[in-house]
Write a structure and sequence with these properties.
Helix content is about 35%, strand content about 20%. The strands form five sheets. An eight-stranded mixed sheet has the order 5-4-18-17-16-6-7-15. A five-stranded parallel sheet has the order 10-9-8-13-14. A three-stranded antiparallel sheet has the order 1-2-3, with helices on one face. It is of the alpha/beta class. The structure holds iron/sulfur cluster (SF4). The site of iron/sulfur cluster has 13 residues, from helix 1.
């Protein structure tokens, strides 16, 4: 048996499981234990063929290898020349890197925004403003007897959520595990999540609001007149509303699609207000990508008392919903620095077309469609494997990431790269 590293934290998703065991042999990963299929990818990526191992610069239309020192200097030169630089990404970087990024954006009077802000960030801001509780995962394990999965499928996105915290484990007041809990799924399609759910509400696309309004109505003691709402029979809606009313402690997990419109968001807030008034304890947990998305919002709040994003061209800095997209549409960005994100893969095509006019500097550990179109690429370590740091779990619990392996020669962490940009500019 090789060298065993225990209590390693996985950065495969925002659950940040801290019970991973990694077996090392001759400075390489031999095997991993406890990690799910998604997290396994984080460890496998160390040696996979798309790993970036040298800084790149586009010269005569082709990306060519350059030294780390030249990549840092080129980036500084471009930042100094830019009138409207913009820093984007951050959901998959450590808190230490996020703090350096915020300082850098401030120094260059730039915009800064997190890749998950148009979904989770904006939802969290509104939930926080209304004092709606984001429960700790350990509290869910010990006490939650109702689990409502709305437009999300943790069996694909947060694979160990059900076994570690939400459905199967036995907690202090849920000592029979799954038998002490009721799971309900609301989705536009059947997923693996529906196998675990007592009620499966397969709604029509875009009908979330109608269903949530019907539930609010019943919980308020009003009657439903329609036979079917959002494709769901009235009897089923009454049954779900009664399960909610009888819950001791419920949790609403929801995906990043739900809160895309303010109308949906307002209904969600009204749902929490209604259950609160009726004395029903229900918390909210958004399930989104990026292992440290909430860390960005916390760090920005600490630094400039803004939660979503910051425009350092204004003094004091201001925040704007959908900041990146709005700035792109208004032609306000002349240099984009992407850290730990792949906007070309994740944003709509009509937005990506706007990137064509702007030089991009990308800081990442792997090749992505965004690195492919970038002017400068600076490779990084894989956090939680080749570099340490701090990340915030989806319930805001700070988790320390360990370094268990030396990175490839000449490869630095996001934090070190951003610090070099900060100190040398
Ligand atoms: S659930 Fe998330 S954090 Fe846990 S092992 Fe899987 S990918 Fe990693």
């Amino acid at each position: 048996m090789g060298d065993l590293q225990s209590n390693v934290v996985c950065t495969g998703c925002s659950l940040l499981c801290d019970d991973i065991v990694v077996e090392l042999e001759n400075g390489k990963i031999k095997t991993t234990h406890h990690v799910c299929a998604r997290g396994y990818g984080r460890y496998y990526q160390i040696a996979f063929k798309y790993r970036l191992l040298s800084p790149l610069k586009r010269i005569n239309g082709k990306q060519q290898e350059i030294s780390y020192e030249d990549a840092i200097q080129e980036t500084i030169d471009l930042l100094k020349k830019a009138k409207n630089p913009f820093f984007y990404g951050w959901a998959s970087t450590t808190s230490e890197a996020q703090q350096k990024g915020i300082q850098l954006a401030q120094k260059f009077k730039a915009g800064i925004d997190c890749a998950t802000n148009s979904t989770t960030g904006i939802v969290l801001q509104q939930l926080n403003a209304k004092n709606i509780q984001i429960p700790q995962l350990e509290d869910i394990k010990d006490n939650a007897d109702l689990l409502l999965f709305w437009g999300c499928n943790p069996t694909a996105s947060h694979i160990r959520l059900l076994s570690k915290f939400a459905l199967l484990p036995r907690g202090a007041n849920t000592d029979r595990g799954i038998e002490d809990r009721v799971a309900i799924s609301v989705d536009i399609r059947k997923t693996d999540m529906t196998k675990f759910s007592e009620e499966i509400l397969q709604i029509e696309p875009g009908e979330d609001k109608a269903l949530l309004e019907a539930l609010i109505q019943i919980i308020q003691g009003k009657s439903l007149t329609e036979d079917i709402i959002a494709n769901i029979p009235r009897k089923t809606i009454y049954n779900v509303a009664n399960i909610i009313k009888e819950a001791n402690f419920g949790v609403l997990f929801f995906g990043n699609g739900y809160a895309k419109t303010q109308e949906n968001m307002d209904t969600l807030l009204r749902f929490f207000e209604t259950v609160n008034q009726k004395g029903i304890k229900i918390g909210a947990v958004p399930l989104d990508g990026g292992y440290n998305a909430v860390g960005f919002n916390l760090n920005l709040k600490k630094h400039v008392n803004l939660e979503l994003n910051a425009d350092f061209q204004s003094s004091p800095p201001t925040q704007t919903p959908n900041f990146l997209i709005e700035s792109l549409k208004q032609d306000k960005i002349d240099l984009l620095v992407v850290v730990g994100a792949d906007p070309i893969s994740n944003l709509p095509f009509h937005v990506c077309k706007l990137f064509a006019k702007i030089p991009i500097i990308c800081i990442d550990y792997q090749q992505t469609p965004t690195t492919k179109v970038s002017h400068i690429v600076i490779p990084t370590t894989i956090p939680g494997v080749e570099s340490a740091g701090t990340a915030y779990r989806l319930d805001y619990k700070p988790i320390t990431l360990k370094k268990i392996l030396e990175p490839p020669e000449g490869i630095y962490s996001d934090e070190e790269i951003l610090n070099a940009l900060l100190e040398q500019s």
